[in-house]
Amino acid sequence: MATTIGILGGGQLARMMALAGAPLGLRFRVLDTSGDACAGQVAPLVQADWNDFDALRAFADGIDVATFDFENVPAQTAHWLAERVPVFPSPRALAVAQDRLAEKRLFEQLGMGTPAFAAVDSRADLDSALARIGAPAVLKTRRLGYDGKGQYRLRSTADADPAWAALGGVPLILEQFVPFDFECSVVAVRGRDGDFRTWPLTRNWHADGILAASLAPAPGDARLADAAFAHARALGEALDYVGVFALELFVHGGRLLANEMAPRVHNSGHWTIEGAQVSQFENHLRAVLGLPLGSTASRGPAAMLNWIGELPSREPVLADPVGHWHDYGKSPRAGRKVGHATFAAADPAGLREALQRAGAALGRVEQVAPVIAALG
Ligand code: AMP
Question: Superfamily for 116-176?
Fold first, then answer.
């Protein structure tokens, strides 16, 4: 019998997992609350609410292991499933990553630097948190935030009222606003046997809270990368994590400050499809199945450009000698991730030229400019 993996959440991450699993002979089944989730174009899709336990029972029947494309699956659903089939990462790891406060407290316990933070559960808490942390600061919902959603930036303490009006009423966290030098992430994989590997450190650029571009290996200080890898390893061990996760970090004055973890394959690891020996998607599948992990070594410098809201013209990327096109099969909508392109070159000069060509041909000069600058 072929091995079948059940994926909770049917977006582009599930879609790319299913595509990566096909050469391994794996079958997939995807569950999503939407009937037109884009992974449904490449794997059987079950449409159901997260608390529809009849549908979950049918979904679990006959799968060998369950995993996630979406970290906000309710904890109750993950626990219910874990009583019936192996679930990786574990519901406990998922629960920590679902709560920005629990996550930051764990980072601190593990000795990582973090932006100063405080729990905010009332309007009075916001005043005392602001008095302690100061402005500028960012107020965030503790749960269900992603891609910059559920966040309010406070330029001064005078912004407390509008920030509270925008987000108050649910558990919140106030964070110091970090005037970072740059952002980076560690994409890591940990096997069922504890084998731990990281892909090269990735440098990231966000626009409006959404990832716009990534570059790997991140140019710069190897000691910084080693420190980031050590943090990721400590996190993986503390959570007894199985599968791929990402640790997102700010670099400020040469120091690493942990922002958040994603308990799943991550947008900043999409470059690994063409830029690494084994991609994050394939290694995630290997990890959750207890198979040997593959090499995370880079094949050369790679840059990923995200397509947000709508796809640009694909011809320039298809015609490019080092370009790779990914269309998620989603309908365009403002702020929605609908695809990406990766440029995987033999050397930094080749990557710079590819980005210059793409920037001009796609009308994306602004999106490629910081990546080209970082290549030196
Ligand atoms: P998050 O959803 O927390 O990853 O936030 C999305 C993006 O907003 C981050 O990648 C940063 O670019 C920015 N951001 C979030 N929190 C902070 C912070 N405390 N200081 C500076 N920038 C932030």
Answer: ATP-grasp fold, A domain (3.30.1490.20)
The pick from 98, 133, 138 for probing ligand 1's pocket by mutation, whose C-beta has the most ligand atoms within 8 angstroms, reads 138
Per-residue pLDDT tens digits for 280-319: 999 999 999 999 999 999 999 999 999 999 999 999 999 9
Q: For residues 248-267, b (16+ Cβ closer than 10 Å) or e, as one string?
A: bbbbeeeebbbbbbbbbbbb
Q: Where in the chain is the domain with CATH 3.40.50.20?
A: 4-87
Residue 75 has a CB neighbour count (10 Å cut-off) of: 14
* Å from CA of 155 to ligand 1 middle: 14
Topology (CATH) of 4-87: Rossmann fold (3.40.50)
pTM > 0.90: yes or no: yes
Specify the ligand 1 atom closest to the Cα of 248. Answer: 4
Q: How many CB atoms lie within 10 A of CB 159?
A: 18
Distances (CA, A) of 310 to 268, 288, 331, 340: 19, 33, 8, 10
The residue ranges of DSSP E strands in 263-334, in sequence order, are 302-308, 323-327
Q: Which atom of ligand 1 is nearest to the CA of 259?
A: 3
Intervals of CATH 3.30.470.20 along the chain: 182-375
In CATH terms, is domain 182-375 a member of 3.30.470.20?
yes
Q: Is the pLDDT of residue 337 over 90?
A: yes
C-alpha 151 to ligand 1 mean position (Å): 9
Residue 318 buriedness (CB in 10 A; 0-12 / 13-18 / 19+): exposed
Range(s) of the chain covered by CATH 3.30.1490.20: 116-176
Contact between 29 and 9 under an 8 Å Cβ cutoff? The reply is no
pLDDT at 146: 64
